[in-house]
Amino acid sequence: MAAATPAAGQAPVYASEALVPLSVTPGLLESNLTNLTSVSAAIRAALGQVQPRTKSVTVVVPDSSARVFVLDFDTLPARPDEALPVLRFRLRKSVPFDVEQAGVSYQVLSEGSSRLETQWKVLAAVIPGPVLAEYESAVRSAGYEPGVVLPASLAVLAALSGMDSQEAILIANLGARALTTSIVAGNDLLLYRTVELPEDPEAMKGEVQRAIAVSAAFFEDRLQVRPHRVLYSGVLSVQEFAELVDDPALAIGEVVPRPETGVVSTMGLHSVAAVTGALAGTN
Q1: Which of 27, 32, 33, 199 has the most CB atoms lying inside 10 A of its own CB?
Q2: What mean pLDDT do residues 226-248 have?
Q3: What is the pLDDT of residues 245-259, one digit of tens each?
Q4: What number of other Cβ atoms are within 10 A of residue 163's Cβ?
Q5: Rounded Cα gap, residues 63 and 176, in angstroms
Q6: Cross-sheet strand order for the sheet of 103-113
Q7: pLDDT tier at 132 (50, 70, 90 boundaries)?
């Protein structure tokens, strides 16, 4: 799926292009693009329909291809070239791949201090070097230049940036092989949790229900109130996801409603939240 704004201030244009089955198999330890030619052709076709204003594009990758952490530090260098080695050292024991060769990015969520200590809260994303190179190669083969690379659920969270409400929100993003749940309260990220999903439909349904239940319990523990809704995005329709969750106490809504204008191709069931968030981060 692709999206672009034809000109500054204009509404986004959306397009979707089908992939050859199994041409993308997201993961950390294996090749992700089993048919790079097909993936590049789909990228070229989708972007050609929305005609971005620049050849440099934001790339949204599946959650299974990266790992995201919320980390606390007593101190962190202000300069990125000094902070990144600290982050790589901290992440070394948390991921099953070579952090020194991985792509790492971070954002300081908050910095607080007292008479005794300074506390930094940092959002860090890490993707294996060979996996990052694959996705970047596919984009370049399509005739574009990869700029920012975002895991899908971080892109979805960026789509919430226009909301004025400080209400805590439980968000669920369903990919082909993983479910990520997040809790956002104002500008604070309280939870970011990705679980890999089994292929068997009944086992997958059970894993989705457990993940939502765990996140709802964490929500209640931290905020002393049960969540009453989940904002959803992903590869199924919102109705199908509500049937998977099967919890009458939770209202399931969409992070971003399906666009009524600017759609230039058949969109299928996929949510537009990730590409909308990617646009929000570049505008």
Answers
A1: 32
A2: 95
A3: 999 999 999 999 888
A4: 13
A5: 9
A6: 67-73, 118-127, 103-113
A7: very high
Joined together, the tokens standing for residue 230 give 């989940």
Other CB atoms within a 10 A radius of the CB of residue 231 amount to: 23
What span, in angstroms and rounded, lies between the C-alpha atoms of 217 and 211?
Answer: 10
pLDDT band at 117 (very low <50, low <70, confident <90, very high): low
Residues 6+ apart with CB under 8 A from 206: none
Strands 103-113 and 188-196: unpaired
Q: Tell me the C-alpha distance between 135 and 26, whole Å.
A: 11
Q: Phi and psi for 200 in degrees, rounded to 5?
A: -60, 125
